[in-house]
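pasting for the record
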Amino acid sequence: MARIGKERIEDLSCKCTKGDIAPFKVMEDCIECVWCGNKIVCKPPIEFVLKERCKNCGETTTFIVDSLGTKICTKCGKF
């Protein structure tokens, strides 16, 4: 289960990991993987995280829902 903090989100999927283990730093206009620098453009704060199959990746991965209600895959960055 992901942990959402004001400046950091723990346990998300990323293109650099297998599984939901990546930490992301919350920035002004995106979240960024601490390990590989993968940026996911969004509008923080992040409201919640969910897990489902991404149509673009073809994998079960984590999605964030930002303050605008946009659901974004944390592995590929697609809506």
